[in-house]
Structures are given as structure tokens and as C-alpha cells.
Amino acid sequence: MSGLPELTETSFVGKVSIVTGGGSGIGAAVADRLSKLGSKVVIVDTDEKAGQSVANAVDCDFTKFDVADLTGWEKLVAETVGQYGTLDFLCLNAGIGSRPRGSSVKDDPIPWILPNYKNVLAVNIDGVVYGAMAALPFMEKQGSGSILVTASVAGIRTQPPDPIYALSKSAVISFVRSIAPALAERGVQINALCPGSVDTPIQPDDRRLEGRPMSPPEEMAEAIGRILVSDDNGGIWIASSSDYPVWRYEFTSAIDGPPS
Ligand code: NAD
């Protein structure tokens, strides 16, 4: 997997992880993987029934809250550190699209933009920025911590069926790349994984009916675990079904102009 370290219990036993959106799909697979490797895992989700059910199945804790709530984040981080003494891994994974479930990818996205714009940005951007900022004081104090943002290839290439989703994923990719140096000075890492198509409920039904190839969420969980324990910082990693295994995306620096 492009130089990423293998996952071993040594990196996770005695460690504490928070996984947002852990009630379904990629987040549920990450919670399961990290828990089996020995980490204490706290699942966060707005869907109480789903989050509690995954937590029971994979031996994790569950907290119901909306990742767009900064006060909720500060409370969650303080309670987690208070109860377990540390916070080592933060998976900022919860995300939504602007398209209603059951809609077709061929439907015109324009009618959904204004009604859903603020909510998509709240979950997909606030949920990342607030989570990272709430965890930072604790991670800085302990001199270590690794944050992983689930972005999307939609944030790098275009995604005409859902422009607001693409906007939100571009934003968090830029955030990860830009904040990484300041976090490094505090002993903290941040990276992002950009999945392609993964077989989870976020996928429009007609994508599934088309028979489009999709990665299992467990492959994303493996990639996320490996990035979390790597020594990379500010890395944008791609894991799309057509070019799995995961690889590091290198942005061109041409915009900086010719070398002086
Ligand atoms: P999913 O719908 O299966 O899971 C998302 C989870 O996030 C759900 O359990 C949902 O209840 C939770 N959630 C939604 N809003 C929340 C909020 N405000 N606070 C807390 N929890 C909230 O989808 P998934 O595919 O597992 O998506 C996980 C991440 O992966 C998302 O950020 C998504 O954008 C990204 N992603 C998914 C794919 C894919 O093909 N499935 C591709 C690229 C990126």
C-alpha cells in the first residue's frame, strides 16, 4: 500500500480513538478495525439506533451528537480524555451529500443546492474543523495525535451530480494541506483519505443498479488505519475502486510560478 505501514496491535493497544459517522458504512468499518486492533473507540453519530448498534457489535462506546456542534465537540473531547486519559486517533469521517436519498444521479442538482447548502457544509466542513480544533489542545499537550479526514475524490475532480458535496470535500482537502505545518509544530499529524465509490448507504441507488464497481468499506478502514499510524502529514491519499491500493496524490506546484 504505497509505503504505508502494516497495521499491528502495537500501534493501537492502550490508545484511544474517536470515529465520527461510525454508525454506518466506512465509519462502522473503521471502528471495528481499530477496536479489533486494541484501541478504545468512541463512535459518534446523529443516528442513535445505528451508532449504538455498531458500538454493541464491535465493542466500542457510543455518543450521540452532531459533528457541526462545537460545544458538543469540546464536551466530547474533554469527557473522552477525562475517562480514558488520552486521545490518540481522531477520524473525522461523518459526511452527507446534498441529494435526497433515493434520487437519481441523472436528476438536476440545481433544486437541491440552496435548500441543502448550509447543512452539507455544516456536517462536511464544520464537522472537520470543529473536531480538529477541539482535539488539538489535548493532542498538543500530550505531544502526539493523528487526525484523519475522510474527504473524497469528488474534492479533486468534478462531481456534477452534487456540486455542494464536491465543494465541501475540496474545502477539507485544502484545510488538511494548509493546516498540516502548524499542527506539525505541535506534534500532531493530519491527513485525508479520498475514497472513490464505496459500497455504503450514501451511494445513490441507481449507481448500485448500474453495477458500477465499488470498494468494500473494510478496504477504506484498512487504508485509514495505515495512514493514521504513518508518519505522513498533510497527505492526500486516494483509494478509488479503479486504482486501489491507496496512493498519495501529489498536487502540482505550477501555480507558484517559475523558480526564481
Ligand atoms: P454513510 O451514509 O454510510 O455513513 C455516514 C454516517 O455519518 C451515518 O451513520 C450518518 O448518520 C452520520 N452522520 C451524518 N451526519 C452527521 C452529523 N451531523 N453528525 C454525526 N454523524 C453524522 O456514508 P459513508 O459512505 O460511510 O461516508 C463516510 C464518509 O466517506 C463521508 O464523509 C463521505 O462523504 C465519504 N465518502 C464516501 C464515499 C462512498 O462512496 N461511500 C466516497 C467518498 C467519500
Can you describe what's shown?
This protein is α/β, with parallel strands linked by helices and 260 residues long. It has a single domain, classed as NAD(P)-binding Rossmann-like Domain (Rossmann fold, 3-Layer(aba) Sandwich). 42% of the residues lie in helices and 14% in strands. It is built from 7 helices and 8 strands, in the order E-H-E-H-E-H-E-H-E-H-E-H-H-E-E. An 8-stranded mixed beta sheet has the order 3-2-1-4-5-6-7-8, with helices on both faces. Strand 7 and strand 8 form a beta hairpin. It is globular, with a radius of gyration of 18 Å. The chain binds nicotinamide-adenine-dinucleotide. Nicotinamide-adenine-dinucleotide binds next to helix 1 and strand 2.
Question: What is the distance, rounded to the nearest whole angstrom, between the alpha carbons of the first and last residues?
Answer: 36 Å
How would you state the average pLDDT, rounded?
93
Small molecules (ligands, ions, cofactors) in the structure: nicotinamide-adenine-dinucleotide
Which shape, going by the Cα principal axes? globular
Helix content: 40-55%
Strand content: 5-15%
Please report the total strand number as a whole number. Answer: 8
The description of the largest β-sheet is: 8 strands, mixed
CATH class: Alpha Beta
CATH topology: Rossmann fold
Element string (H = helix, E = strand): EHEHEHEHEHEHHEE
CATH homologous superfamily caption: NAD(P)-binding Rossmann-like Domain
Task: Quickly give the structural class.
Answer: alpha/beta
